[in-house]
TrEMBL record:
Upper lineage: Eukaryota, Viridiplantae, Streptophyta, Embryophyta, Tracheophyta
Signal peptide range: 1-18
Gene Ontology molecular function: any one: polygalacturonase activity
Full protein name: endo-polygalacturonase
Gene3D superfamilies attached to this UniProt entry: Single-stranded right-handed beta-helix, Pectin lyase-like
Subcellular locations according to the entry: Secreted, Cell wall
Active site feature: H253
Keywords attached to this entry: Cell wall, Cell wall biogenesis/degradation, Glycosidase, Hydrolase, Repeat, Secreted, Signal
Organism: Solanum pinnatisectum
Catalysed reaction, written as an equation: (1,4-alpha-D-galacturonosyl)n+m + H2O = (1,4-alpha-D-galacturonosyl)n + (1,4-alpha-D-galacturonosyl)m
GO biological process, one term: cell wall organization
Length: 422
């Protein structure tokens, strides 16, 4: 078995003219991330809880009767009662149509879903003019099922590309919930903790990001298991201080930052930490993906203590991302990617190239740190691909691996100019 074993402890930033600058150590790069380590939630703030059970508001829970009104009424009660818990009991299925749960609410509240919430099961029954893509949310979800995915233009080329309803949370912390996108989507959130979420969708279900975070800051995602047909977790524009811990991903497209920069747009993501994750059978592992022509930056990101099993592209940065039926035009501008740390990443790679850094010639990646990376393949052909990285230095105990890394830095990038969805 070919083993890729890297111990990189030093990154040196080179200027445009190649002038040497100040040493740039791993801990210096991400010193501001020291405050981003994920801490477990404090149950004390939910002492003396008031349980608001949807069954007390007339919910039937047989999976066929419309329980929308019971959910709305229970939400109103929860929202107006301090230290209350919106509770969906286990062992029953509740059919709920498109609903917006509105705040602001009194004090801190919790949503605890142990049962199953069922969405309308046929696209024909969905009123796009009225509801758009807004459904509701949160845990043990079924209902965005095969009929929706079969109607996708990605699976049936004769159908128009119309977005399916997904789940969205909007608000500032737990005081101000609005439930309108992907399996779970969180946008415009500040100070929010997501824990114990399970998302399950078929591996071939299109555009089913498990957890999608956008325009949010100070979000914690932990103790969650996600299997889907797209990214297990995707973090996109205007997001910062995103902390993830104890995440299981598979099947799916891995844990992604992006895509960013589509249609020459600005994309900014900063301050992301993933600590303690297991990825199994995914088409990507730890991925940063940006379109050509964009602007903005991704910086101050740390992936650590990650175990992979049979994962394609375990570590990948792709500044030539192109999820389009047509070839994407080469452009010189790009979203800047810098201050990225991979630490204690191990396991098996399904793809020949276990590490891919496909960075822009005009806007190179910089300050990339790999520390204690141990990835293996079964057939002895593990490789590293690097294009246009400033400041990547290698100190490896394996001379063959060092030679392979050095060779990878000189590889041409032509085959990576056009990237479709993996």
């Amino acid at each position: 078995m070919a083993k890729i074993l890297f111990f990189l402890f030093l990154v040196w930033l080179m200027g445009a003219l190649g002038a040497a600058k100040t040493n740039f150590l791993d801990d210096v790069i991400l010193s501001e991330l020291d405050d981003l380590d994920v801490e477990d939630g404090d149950e004390a703030e939910f002492g003396n809880k008031i349980l608001v059970n949807i069954d007390s508001f007339g919910a039937v829970g047989d999976g066929a009767s419309d329980d929308t009104k019971a959910f709305v009424d229970a939400w109103k009660q929860t929202c107006s009662t301090p230290k209350s818990v919106f509770f969906v009991p286990a062992g029953r299925s509740y059919l709920v149509n498109a609903t917006r749960f509105r705040g602001p609410c009194v004090g801190i509240l919790r949503v605890q879903i142990e049962g199953t919430i069922v969405a309308p099961d046929d696209p024909k029954n969905w009123n796009f003019a009225k509801n758009g893509r807004i459904w509701l949310g949160f845990f043990n979800l079924t209902g965005l099922c095969s009929k929706w995915w079969a109607a996708s233009c990605k699976k049936n080329k004769t159908n128009p590309c119309v977005a399916a309803p997904t789940l969205r949370y909007k608000g500032e912390g737990p005081n101000n919930p609005k439930w309108p996108t992907d399996e779970f989507s969180y946008f415009s959130i500040r100070l929010y903790r997501i824990t114990g979420v399970t998302v399950s969708a078929p591996e071939d279900s299109p555009n089913t990001d498990g957890i999608h975070i956008t325009e949010s800051t100070n979000v914690v995602l932990q103790n969650s298991k996600i299997g889907t047909g797209d990214d297990c977790v995707s973090i996109v524009n205007a997001s910062s201080s995103i902390k993830m811990k104890r995440i299981y991903c598979g099947p799916g497209h891995g844990i992604s930052i992006g895509s960013l920069g589509k249609d020459n747009s600005v994309g900014i993501v900063t301050g992301v930490v993933l600590d303690n994750a297991f990825l199994r059978g995914t088409t990507n592992g730890l991925r940063i993906k940006t379109w050509q022509g964009g602007s903005g930056y991704v910086r101050a990101v740390r992936f650590q203590n990650v175990r992979m099993q049979n994962v394609s592209n375990p570590i990948i940065i792709d500044q030539f991302y192109c999820d389009s039926p047509k070839s994407c035009q080469n452009q010189t501008s790009a979203v800047e990617i810098s201050e990225i740390v991979y630490r204690n990443v191990s396991g098996t790679s399904k793809s020949q190239k276990a590490i891919k850094f496909a960075c822009s010639d005009n806007v190179p990646c910089s300050h990339i740190v790999l520390n204690n990376i141990n990835l293996e393949t079964r057939d002895g052909t593990a490789e590293v691909y690097c294009n246009s990285i400033q400041g990547l230095c290698l100190n490896s105990s394996d001379k063959k691996i060092k030679q392979k890394m050095d060779a990878g830095l000189d590889e041409p990038r032509e085959e990576y100019i056009i990237h479709t969805e993996l």
